[in-house]
Each structure stands twice: as structure tokens, then as C-alpha cells.
Amino acid sequence: MGLTFCNVHFTKQAERVVYLSGSLMKSLKLSGKRNIRMRLGKDTIPAVIKPIKRSGNHIFLTSGVKSAIKVPNSGGVYLRNLQNEEVQIGPLVGILSDGAGSSTQPFGSRTGFIKQLLREGSGKCYIFAFMPRDINWQQEQVYGYFLTGSGKFERKMVPLPDVVYNRLPSRKAETSPYINQLRDRFARKKIPYFNWSFFNKSDVYKLLENDSTANRYVPETHSNPSTEQMRDMLDRHHFVYYKPSAGSLGHGIYRLTYLPKKGYFARYRRGGKNVLLRFGTFDSLMRMLRTRHGQSLQSYVVQQGIRLIEIDGCPIDFRFHMHKNGSNQWVVVGIGAKKAGRGSVTTHLKNGGALLTPQQALGRVFGARADEVLQQAKTTAVRLAESLEVQHHHLLGEIGFDLGIDQDEDIWMFEANAKPGRSIFRHPSLRAEGKASIEHILEHCLYLSKFRRRDEM
């Protein structure tokens, strides 16, 4: 199979003819051929090919070809020579999200990130964003959002893409029958679709239980714990985290502490403020939790508390932003160290936390050994990503891990996120990592669509 980067041009002729420069004909092993099938996404048409004298790799598509398979733009893109004299142009990459925003911000708060993806992807592939309602399954077409050179959105109809990067923002929407059907339809059409869905905390812990090597990095955790399990965890560990399985951003999390002779303490966040309550008995603590949450406590998990390393008396943990690269390998792309705000249950920035680089944080705790400790944490993060992917059985291309390092230098995994937020990349020292994150997403799209990179023009 030949793969070549080339420049695409359009002509106004109505017939279905594809003109190829001599070097491109040779690169695609089409010398002497007169007919091909031209493909974009899932659409193919027959076309006549004709060589032209022009240096470099150039392809000229007549309007008959352009309109038939809906080629969206001219410019730099790849060509694949498939079997049966079929040439595929692309890849056609779809970013799936949603929103009820304006024409300039159609994807709401995610619009800036999506624009960044489309901007970086242009010149490497045909990349567009779309919402579930933009798909016409009968026609197998998508009415997508492309980005113009001036940075504005432009709607164009294209075939179903070669690969879909899922950034649907809502857990609730993602479990709807319509979205389940959407995923299944892409799967039946053999269109790679990553990341499949949000993780539930309890699901992640269960998946890692099947891998004893990876599971040793997970604190003791129980889903939907009984009252007896809660009491036992507090008796043995003295402090635990009690958190919703489908929660995010630290919402609904309690830090529960048992101090013999002093009682039970619950720390949580309410109305934008940190709250600390004391209870004389375990039963009164549980009554408070049931009063606040009722039946929803059945979707909670309880997790062993870990004595994390601290700066200025405040615990710190780390967000590891993981990506698959263009060779389908897990790599650490960005790391943010999160220092908890005073009295906060979590290190979330919205709860008063502060963001540091890992070098700043570990340098203050471990001094000259900071790089050694960081390297060990990176190795652990890759190991966890590999294990989670094997156990998950769906395509993953991106994971956000919340990792901690305890005062014995042991590494712990608290949470895994299939659609990690990007707040760490706002740190001035992590902007390069933010750009690398975008590049890794695009490289993985090229990999999944079977467009492997070679020397570009």
C-alpha cells in the first residue's frame, strides 16, 4: 500500500477525471493505469486518471470528482493506494461534540479547544467537528463544521468519516439510547471511534482488579459500600474518601476521618465554601450522609485515604495527561501538580487549589531526587494506561490519571478520566505540552484511519 502526502487542486471540468503529477503516479504505483476508484471517507466513485507534467506531488480533481465524493478543501492531504486500484484521499477526521451555542460558539465552552484541533489538523487531514444531530444515516453523510483560514466556522456536507474522536460533554447524554445506537452504528461500519465513553470510578477500579500488577497502585476501594464496610474502613485507615462513582470536578466528595476519643469528622464543599463537621458517633455521621443524598449514596464508592506528600502543610497530587501516539503507544504528554487549598477536600483548582509544574512540586519535596521520583511516576502511569486499555475492550486514545505520591514514595492512582479536562495546560510552563496534546490526538487519528505519516513535502 502506497501512502503519499500531496497538494490537492480543483478544476471546473464536469467529467470525472483525476490528474496526477508524474512523481505522484510513481509514488502511488499507478503508472500505466487508466482507471481508479477515488475514495473519501466511506464514499467511492470510478474516475479516469491522466498524468500531467508538473514537479512535486500534485493531484487535480475535476468538479465532477469533487462534488461526487464531497472533497471539502484543496491543500495538503494524504493519498493511500489501496487494493483493487482504489485511491483514498484524506483522512477524513470527525470530532464529535455537542452544544447549544451561537453560530460563533456552536460547541459552547469547548469551542476554543475544537477550533485548536481543526486549526492544527488542517494541512494534515480533512478535519471537522459535528454533533449527533448532524449525521444523516440514510445518506451516510455528515453536515460538519470546518474552519476557514480566517478562523470562522463553515458548514459542509461530507461522507461518514474515517475516524471519530469522541468529545461529547455530558455523561447523561452519553448513556441515552440515541448515543448508544450512534456508537453501535459507527462500530458496524468499522469506523474507529475513540474514546468510547466517560469512565465511572467503580468501573475503573473493577477493571484494574483483573491485573494484579496495576491494581497494587489503587487504594483499597469498595463500590456501594455497606454501613459495616464504611465503619471497617474508618477503623482501619482512620480517613477515607467517599465519592460519587459518576462524579467529576470534585463535586459531592467527602473526606471522612475517625480520631479515637475525638469522634468522626466530615469535610466537604458546599456553596463554594469548605465545611468541616464533627460527629460524636459513627451512626450520626451516616445519618447526615443519608439526609443529604438519600438513595444516591448507592452510587458512591469509599476509598482508603492516602497520606500524600505536602507543600506548606497542603497535600499535592498530580494530573497525568496520557495520549496514544502515532505508533499506538501510550505516552505521558503533560503533568500538572495540584496543591490543595487550605481546608479543601480535593486539589481541584476550582476549590482553591494551585497549579504547579511537577518539577516545582517535587523539587520542593525531594530536592535532587525529584527527577528520579518523576520518572517512576511516569512509568507507572504508562503501565496503568496499558492495563486499562486491555481490560476496557474499547478504543482509548486519551486518559487523565489523578496520581498521588505518599510519604513513603509509593505511587497511587485515585481516578482515571476518559475525557480529561485541559486546565493544566493553562499554566504558562505547560503550554507547549498543551500543543503536544493536540498533536498526539491528530497523530492517533492518522494511525486509526490507517494513514501513516511519511516524509511531507
UniProtKB/TrEMBL annotation:
GO molecular function, one term: metal ion binding
Pfam families in alphabetical order: ATPgrasp_YheCD
Segment forming the signal sequence: none
Name under which the protein is recorded: ATP-grasp domain-containing protein
Keyword list, A-Z: ATP-binding, Nucleotide-binding
UniProt domain ATP-grasp: residue ranges: 371-446
Record has Nucleotide-binding as a keyword: yes
Lyase among keywords: no
